[in-house]
Design goal:
Elements: H1 43-60, E1 61-65, H2 67-71, E2 87-91
Length: 95
């Protein structure tokens, strides 16, 4: 429950797990605001706000998708896909 900066120094005895002088600590055992129980408390709220902003953006513009891309059997749309989705955005005209 204490912050001991020496536990991240490989030359110090605190670097190893207590009682085991051969096994190093997990490098993510203390990373404030980014991992595990200590992650940012506002992260969930920020992700929800981002989803709302994206939805509002999509509703505020007209967009067209190339029909050939939709009919392509090899197209996969994912976060880390190499496939490029071509969109044409137009400002939505209010009626």
């Amino acid at each position: 429950m204490k912050f001991i900066p020496e536990r991240f120094d490989p030359e110090n005895d605190y670097y190893y797990k207590p009682g085991n002088k051969k096994e190093a600590r997990d490098p993510t055992c203390f990373i404030p605001f980014s991992y595990g129980m200590r992650k940012c408390p506002g992260q969930i709220l920020a992700m929800m706000e981002l989803k709302v902003l994206i939805a509002k953006f999509i509703l505020s513009v007209d967009y067209e998708i190339d029909q050939q891309q939709l009919e392509n059997d090899y197209a996969r749309f994912a976060m880390f896909s190499n496939f490029k989705l071509k969109l044409k955005f137009n400002k939505k005209v209010s009626e």
